[in-house]
């Protein structure tokens, strides 16, 4: 099975856009400037930035010069790929491109666009691998073993957060004691493993509230909660609003 599948390339010329893909991973190049929300958190970017979104994550951008996006599905063995895990398992979603590397990244996106137009899967795969490795190489000097553990945890959360809300499940998947995971997350300056799970759940609840017309009860069950009343209390405790109130307050045209 191919590493990358169903590849699509898009250009956006500065008009406001909301992006969220149910089953696709995305790499986005924001050129020069961007005022945007990633998973409902605001970021003001100056200079060229790369953004890495997993399926069901959300990008809303209202003010920018140019945005280029490549989206794709992946095969099941992708979780063994170090550069993929580093970029898409990373708790940080956006990375600034150093001015000395801007031309190289722009050329990679040009190659990706041309290869997609020609439906040249081999060339697309080569360019995507180069792009993923490029961002991995920029992490020199970090404790890669600890980082990869944290990013593998985050990658598993993206796969299983709808059915598994407890940290113990992910610790067992990684064959790592929960206490050790918590200590490593703290040492890296990351939010706790439990906090990361909760954050991912809340992002998806918000996405469904704003970008679908699903009933609150349906969203509750889809995210893995069995009790709508408990689901409402959980959401209110972490956002200050009920699900209905949040939807009414932040109405978005999908």
TrEMBL record:
A Pfam match is: HTH_18
Domain annotation HTH araC/xylS-type: ranges: 171-249
Protein keywords: DNA-binding, Transcription, Transcription regulation
Q: Which InterPro entries match?
A: Homeodomain-like_sf, HTH_AraC
Q: Molecular function terms in GO for this entry?
A: DNA-binding transcription factor activity; sequence-specific DNA binding
Q: Cite the Gene3D superfamilies for this sequence.
A: Homeodomain-like (1.10.10.60)
Q: Which SUPFAM superfamilies match?
A: Homeodomain-like
Provide the protein name.
Helix-turn-helix domain-containing protein
